[in-house]
Amino acid sequence: MENKTELPIVLEIKKVVEEAENTKTFYFDHTLNSKPGQFVMLWLPGVDEIPISVSFDDGEQFALTVFARGEASNQICGLKEGDKIGIRGPYGTMFNYAEGENLVLVGGGYGAAPLRFLANEAVKKNCKIDFMMAAKTKNKLLFVDELREMKNVTVYIATSDGSEGFKGHINETLEKVLKEKKINKIMTCGPELLMKAVGEIGDKANVQTQISIERYMKCGFGVCGQCVMDPLGIRTCVSGPVMNSKVLNMLEEFGKYRRDAEGRKQYFNK
Ligand SMILES: Cc1cc2nc3c(=O)[nH]c(=O)nc-3n(C[C@H](O)[C@H](O)[C@H](O)COP(=O)(O)OP(=O)(O)OC[C@H]3O[C@@H](n4cnc5c(N)ncnc54)[C@H](O)[C@@H]3O)c2cc1C
Ligand code: FES
Known about the structure:
Bound molecules: flavin-adenine dinucleotide, FE2/S2 (inorganic) cluster
Helix content: 10-25%
Low-confidence stretches: none
CATH topology of the largest domain: Rossmann fold
CATH superfamily of the largest domain: Nucleotide-binding domain of ferredoxin-NADP reductase (FNR) module
Distance between the termini: 45 Å
Strand order of the largest sheet: 1-7-4-5-6-3-2
């Protein structure tokens, strides 16, 4: 039964796992009945309410993986087992795949979080997964040991400084795998310029590419209009976060800019 709610439910943190530098996963004894790609609004009373992707949900427990970057995420990363937070959701679209497909997942930074949930679910449906992960340095890689132990998952790593795996862009690995294997779908989550490049490679190789988009969100369920994308006015929280590259190619701001809480444009290459 779906338990989606527009009012926060208060949940106690059951377990905290330190995944990498400044990144923690919080487990809760509760299911959201969520699907990979969906997100929740995480509320820390008196601080902020921010969107976070579900990184695990097995029908008994769910988890959220948070990278400490600003005020809210830093305070969340300071929470301990037994502390309480508010959760609304799950919201948004999910990654789509069929039984037995060959999938390539490309994650950058904390973008690996929803892809970890996706890998967990897709292997149960006999999918074979090439999981490509990019990070600036080895200390920022997420879930590597866990993914390497999974049946039918092959892990590829690229770091900017060469401290683990291939030194350079994960795109080169993606292009190589697309030439060598029959791939049904590509799914990506990470920095927008990385995802734009992945979408272009997927389009060129004629492989359907699903991209998880980040935009500033306030309500998370379609009423405030904060997360619309130019020029079509598509609401990212309802039509996304997971969208097909063909849809994103029609949105002129994709790969160029996003808006902050006041609606000002923030360019990605500045
Ligand atoms: C659908 C979705 C899923 C996400 N999943 C994850 C995840 O799994 N793990 C994770 O660590 N982060 C995730 N994020 C990003 C996370 O929401 C922001 O990093 C967080 O809101 C930063 O808040 P802050 O107060 O710590 O930092 P701030 O210093 O306030 O902001 C840092 C950056 O985060 C952006 N940001 C701040 N508030 C919001 C907001 N309400 N909505 C969107 N962006 C915001 C700012 O524009 C800025 O670029 C996700 C974002 C979206 C839209
Ligand atoms: S966050 Fe309010 S409409 Fe998307």
